[in-house]
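Whiteboard transcription, Tuesday session. T.W. wrote the structure tokens on the left side:
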């Protein structure tokens, strides 16, 4: 693995980041620096929870330009960097790690939005596969979450904006067909509280057979939906999940699989960034 900041290409293995998904080189201008005392406004915010997710995201950001780490209010640590979009404009990224799912994740999402005012928030990390067609190392890009409430057992579908769904389709159309792992688009399920894994797996299969993965982002998504009502610059959210195991009674994720899934999710996040450049309102 190499650090490509300041070079004309940005590559991690067979992954190419920049103005297109497939190609030889991406050219962009010299690194720029800003006042170290204040966070720069971000075009894209990234939220993680687990340590392996954060390590993978920081690894991707370190191979971009102007990587830096700063402390935010309430003790949050943010990692920042940028890379060019498809026409050479810079896309600023800021990533923070929540302490845990649920309320802490929602608070971290609110802090990320209030400080950096991003146009898009990406919920990036690992998940359990919820389909017989999913294998470890696959990555699911999701534009809607099926929220599972153990009390009512009634699903709620939380969708992002049509604008972001179009951007995801544009991105997926340009992914080379023979990729080292699959990048899939589909819904993810998110239990609203502590639930039996087998029960959740079976319930999701009965409610929506298209649910590809199970994760814990419903609280953050609700927070982002509320923030969009007050912030015209926030265009929506997406979930990017690397598959670390298969959801169900036999939990089979391992540390090695979790690291692989987190790295794949971080790679897809970086490849998607050039497609998420928006003009401010």
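and on the right, the sequence the group agreed on:
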């Amino acid at each position: 693995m190499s650090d490509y900041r300041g070079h004309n290409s940005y590559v991690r293995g067979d992954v190419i980041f920049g103005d297109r998904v497939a190609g030889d080189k991406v050219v962009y201008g010299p690194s720029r620096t800003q006042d170290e005392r204040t966070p720069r406004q971000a075009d894209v915010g990234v939220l993680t929870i687990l340590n392996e997710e954060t390590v993978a995201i920081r690894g991707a950001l370190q191979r971009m330009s102007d990587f830096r780490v700063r402390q935010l209010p309430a003790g949050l640590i943010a990692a920042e960097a940028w890379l060019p979009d498809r026409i050479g404009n810079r896309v600023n990224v800021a990533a923070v790690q929540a302490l845990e799912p649920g309320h802490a994740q929602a608070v971290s999402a609110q802090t990320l939005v209030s400080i950096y005012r991003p146009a898009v928030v990406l919920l990036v990390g690992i998940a359990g596969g919820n389909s017989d067609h999913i294998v470890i190392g696959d990555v699911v890009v999701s534009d809607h979450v099926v929220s599972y409430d153990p009390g009512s057992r009634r699903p709620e579908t939380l969708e992002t904006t049509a604008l972001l769904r179009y951007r995801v389709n544009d991105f997926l159309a340009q992914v080379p067909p023979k990729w080292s792992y699959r990048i899939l688009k589909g819904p993810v399920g998110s239990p609203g509280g502590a639930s039996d894994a087998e029960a959740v797996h079976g319930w999701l299969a009965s409610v929506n057979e298209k649910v590809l993965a199970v994760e814990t982002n419903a609280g953050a998504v609700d927070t982002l939906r509320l923030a969009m009502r007050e912030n015209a610059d926030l265009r929506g959210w997406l979930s990017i999940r690397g598959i670390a195991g298969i959801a169900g009674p036999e939990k089979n994720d391992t540390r090695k699989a979790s690291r692989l899934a987190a790295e794949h999710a971080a790679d897809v996040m970086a490849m998607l960034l050039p497609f998420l450049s928006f003009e401010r309102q």
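Someone added at the bottom: The chain has one domain: 11-275.
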